[in-house]
Amino acid sequence: MPRGGHGDLRLSDGRRLRSPPGAVTRPTPARVRQSVFNLLQEQVAGTRWLDLFSGSGVMACEALLHGAAHVTAVERHGRAAAVTRHNLELVCHPPQTFTLHRREVLAWLRAWKHSAEPRQPFALIYADPPYNGGLHGPMATAIPAAGVLAPTGLLLLECTSRQPPATLPGWRLGSRHRYGGTTVLVLQQAVDNA
Question: Annotated region Disordered: where (predicted)?
Fold first, then answer.
């Protein structure tokens, strides 16, 4: 749906964030964000959080607020990535760190897999691909292939409630949470992929 702006984008601590202009992104609603972090509770503190299809960066910012030690955000759109950087800089405080990659998610996952640099997998991944972009399946295949998620880590996959992915091979559904038009699937890698 077209958006000339996303209204008031606020974090759980009341801080106001920038929102990318136009219809490029669809920020995760406040009610969904609150529910996700209530669900995760203490699991976020001290972890490495990966935010795929970061958009405004609001989920990565919330992860920092909830004590994540490091956040990596991946967003391919230039204007959205600039907003993500601004928002993360607003929230990130030493010793917390963040990394922002302006790149298409599947290409970033392939590059991460083949990087010569030492890599530490993420404990938590939040992925919010375009609802009708056909990316849920390819991304769910690319994450285990890249080794980007720790064996005991969780993938939180945001999708439309009207047509959530039926099955994602290689993943075990831990729980499903519906918030009106938005559903969040909490997934773990199947044992043979871990």
Answer: 1-29
